[in-house]
Amino acid sequence: MWTALLAMASCTPCHEAIVRSFERTGMGRSMTAPVAEALPSQAGRHGQQNWAVAWRRDGLEHRVGGETRRMAWAVGSGHEGKSYLWRAGDALFQSPLAWYSKRGSWDLSPGYAAGAEIDFLRPVTADCLFCHAGSSRPVPGSLHRYAAIPQPGIHCERCHGDGAPHAADPKRGNIVNPVRLAPAARDSVCEQCHLSGAARVPLPGKTFADFRPGMVLEEVFSVYLPVTAKAFKVVSHAEQLAESECAKASGTRMWCGSCHDPHGEPAEAESWYRERCQSCHANARPHGERCAECHMPRTAASDGGHTAFTDHRIRKPGPAAVPVAVTGLRAWREPEAQWRARGLGLAYAGAGDLQRAFPLLRETRGDGEAQSALGLVYLRAGRTEEAVAVLEQAVRAEPRHSSRRLNLAAALLAAGRRERAKAEAEQAIALEPLLRDAYVLLAEIEPRRAAYWRARFETELRK
Ligand code: HEC
Ligand code: HEC
Ligand code: HEC
Ligand code: HEC
Ligand code: HEC
Ligand code: HEC
Ligand code: HEC
Predict the structure, then answer these.
(1) Pairwise CA distance, residues 352 & 156, whole Å
(2) 295 CB less than 6 Å from ligand 6?
(3) Which of 71, 74, 213, 295 has the highest count of CB atoms within 10 angstroms of its CB?
(4) pLDDT tens digit string along 178-199?
(5) From CA 164, how far away is CA 7, in angstroms rounded?
(6) Average pLDDT, integer, range 97-121
(7) Which of 345, 344, 408 is nearest to 376 (CA)?
(8) Is-contact 425 438, C-beta < 8 A?
(9) In whole angstroms, how far apart are CA 183 and each of 99, 190, 223, 251, 277?
(10) HSE (CB half, 13 Å, CA atoms) of 27?
(11) pLDDT of 391-415, one tens digit each?
(12) Distances from the Cα of 358 to the Cα of 14, 168, 274, 349, 361, angstroms
C-alpha cells in the first residue's frame, strides 16, 4: 500500500568524499532502521505497568503491559538519544519508550513521566518527520497518515534544493549554495529545522514540505517565539545565536555556517572552533585557548533534547540565567502584512492562550485553518452555536480534513445535537480510521456503546 518516494538525484559519483563524510554526521543519521544498532534489552516498571524492550530475530520490540509493538524507525542519531516509531496501516505512532545515550538506558519518552498510564498511541505528526526524515509524504488533511515510506536521514537536497538539473549539467550556479544566498534565505535553510519556537504556522494552503532552499521561511510558514521580560527563555540554536553580541554586532555576517561545516564534524573540535572565533576576534587580547569552553559552556538541557546543550548566546562568563515567565509571543520574522494577525492568532491558539487568540482570529477573513482554531476558542468559551457555525465553514473549506470534522463533532455534541455529532465523528473515522480521539468522542456521544467504540478502534489498529 505504501509506495516509495521518488529517488533523489545521486550526488555520489562526483562528490563522494562529501557524501561519505555527511553520512557519518548526526544529520546524516537522523532517522534509521532500528536493526542497524545494538542497544541492550531492558525491563522496567511505571506505576502499575511493566514495560520491556527486547531484540527479536526480526527486529526491535517494545512492550507495555500486555501490548507489544515492533518498531519501524529510530529517530535521532543517538548522540543524545533516540525515539521510536511504529506503524499501523499507513499511520505512524510514537513509542512511550526511548533510549537515553548519556545514561545508557531505556526510559519513558519525554512527556510521559508525569502522566499516569503510558500507551503506544501518541500520533506522529508531519512536523516531526519534516525535521528528522529526508522527506515524507503526509496524506493531506490527516493527522498522522503517510502516503509513502518516509525517507530516513536528512539528505543533500534539504539544503541544496532539487539536484536533478545540476546532476544532468554539472557546474556551479545551477544548484543552491546556501553561503551565497541573501542572509534571510541563507539562515532559513537551517531554520527549517533548527528554530522550533513556541509555534510554527504555515500560510493558508501551505504545508512545511513546500519549503525549498533559496526561499525565505515566511514564504511558507512563520515561527513564533516566546517573549519574556528578560530575553533568555530561548531554546533553539537559531534563537540563542541571535541573542549573542557576536551576531548583533556583526550584522548579517554571522550565521550557523560561520562555525559549522554541515558536511562533517571537526576532527579536532577545540582548534576548529578557536579558529572560527579568531576569524573575527583576531585582535582580542589573548586570555585562553579553549574559547568555547568559557564562552559557550554546555548546559544540562532537559531530558529528551530540543534545547541547545551548548549555549549559543556566546557571552562573557557570569552567573547562570534564571528562567523567567513568558509574557507573550512574537514572530521571528513577520510574514506578509495580510497574514500577520492570522499567524499570531494561530500561534496563541496553539499555545493555549485563547484570550489573545480570539480578537486576532476574529479579525482574519477566515481560511479553514483560522476558522477551525476560532471554532475551538468559541467552544471553550461555551459559545457553542457560534462554534458550530465557524467549524462548519472550516469543514466546507476542506471536507477531507479529519481533525476539523472531529472538532465540528465536538461542538455539535456541546450544542446538544447528538445525531449530527455522531455523523461527523463517523466521517472523521472514514477519512482517518486510526484517529483515536474520534472513537473517544463517539464513546462520549453514545455512552452505552462505549465498549463497542473502544473495540472498533482496537480492530482498526490490528488491521
Ligand atoms: C556529474 C557530476 C556531478 C553530480 C552528479 C553532482 N555534482 Fe555538484 N558539482 C559538480 C561540479 C563539476 C561542480 C562545480 C565545481 C567547481 O566548479 O568548483 C559542482 C558544484 C556543486 C556545488 C557548488 C555550487 C556553487 O554554485 O557553489 C554544490 C552545492 C553541489 N555541486 C551539490 C551537488 C549535489 C547536492 C548533488 C546531488 C544532488 C550534486 N552536486 C551532484 C558535479 C556534480
Ligand atoms: C531537515 C532538517 C534540518 C536542516 C535543514 C538542518 N538541520 Fe542540522 N540537524 C537536524 C537534526 C534533526 C539534527 C540532530 C541529528 C541527530 O543527532 O539525530 C541536526 C544536527 C545538527 C548539528 C549537530 C551535529 C550533527 O551533525 O548532528 C549541527 C552542527 C547542525 N545540525 C547544523 C546545521 C546547519 C549549519 C544547517 C544549515 C546549513 C542545518 N543544520 C540544517 C536537522 C536539520
Ligand atoms: C545541512 C545542510 C546541508 C546538507 C544536508 C548538505 N550540504 Fe552541501 N553545503 C551546505 C553549505 C552551508 C555549504 C556551503 C559551505 C561553505 O562554503 O561554507 C555547502 C556546500 C557544498 C558544496 C560546495 C562547496 C564544497 O564544500 O565543496 C558541495 C559540492 C556540496 N555542498 C555537496 C553536498 C552533498 C553532496 C550533500 C549530501 C551528501 C550535501 N552537500 C549536503 C549545506 C549542506
Ligand atoms: C562573524 C564574526 C564573529 C565570530 C565568528 C565570533 N564573534 Fe564574538 N563578537 C563579534 C563581534 C563583532 C562582537 C562585538 C564587538 C567585540 O566585542 O569585539 C563580538 C563579541 C564577543 C564577546 C563579547 C560579548 C559581550 O557580552 O560583550 C565575546 C565574549 C565573544 N564575542 C566571543 C566569541 C567566541 C568565543 C567566538 C567563537 C566561539 C566568537 N566570539 C565568534 C563577532 C564574532
Ligand atoms: C560561534 C560559533 C558557533 C555558531 C555561529 C553556531 N554554533 Fe552551533 N556549536 C558551536 C559549538 C562550539 C558547539 C559545541 C561543539 C562540541 O561540543 O563539539 C556547537 C554545537 C551545536 C549543535 C550540537 C548540539 C549542542 O547544542 O551542543 C548544534 C545542533 C548546533 N551547534 C547548531 C547550530 C545552529 C543551527 C547554528 C546557527 C543558528 C549554530 N549552531 C551556530 C559553535 C557555534
Ligand atoms: C578561561 C576562560 C576563557 C577562555 C578560555 C576564553 N575566554 Fe574570552 N573571556 C573570558 C572572560 C572571563 C571574559 C570577560 C573579561 C571581562 O569582563 O573583563 C572574556 C572576554 C572576552 C571577550 C570580550 C572582550 C574582551 O577582551 O574582554 C572576547 C571577544 C573574548 N573573550 C573572546 C575569546 C576568544 C576568541 C577566546 C579563545 C581564543 C577566549 N575568549 C577564550 C574568559 C575566557
Ligand atoms: C522543528 C524541528 C523539529 C521537530 C518538529 C522535531 N525535532 Fe527532534 N530534533 C530537532 C533538532 C534540530 C535536533 C538536534 C538537537 C537540538 O537542536 O535540540 C533534534 C533532536 C532530537 C533527538 C535527539 C537526537 C540526538 O541523539 O542528538 C530526538 C530523539 C528527537 N529529536 C526526536 C524527535 C521526535 C520523535 C519528534 C516528533 C515527535 C521531533 N524530534 C520533532 C528538530 C526537530
Answers:
(1) 37
(2) yes
(3) 74
(4) 999 999 999 999 999 999 989 9
(5) 10
(6) 88
(7) 408
(8) yes
(9) 37, 12, 17, 10, 20
(10) 21
(11) 999 999 999 999 999 999 999 999 9
(12) 54, 51, 49, 8, 5
- For residues 146 and 90, the answer to whether their CB atoms sit within 8 Å is yes
Residues 348 and 360: beta-carbon distance below 8 Å: yes
Lookup result for grid cell 529517488: 7
- The pLDDT score that the predictor gives to residue 7 is 56
Q: Can you tell me which atom of ligand 5 is nearest the CA of 190?
A: 35
Q: In the structure grid, which three cell numbers stand for residue 181, read together? A: 544566498
- CA dist 23 and 167 (Å) reads 20
161 in Cβ contact with 181 (< 8 Å)? no
Cβ–ligand 2 contact at 308 (below 6 Å): no
Hey, CA dihedral for 288, 289, 292, 294, is it positive or negative? negative
Per residue in 290-302, pLDDT (tens digit) is 999 999 998 765 5
pLDDT of 334 reads 96
Pocket test for ligand 7, best of 84, 100, 132 (most atoms within 8 A of CB): 132
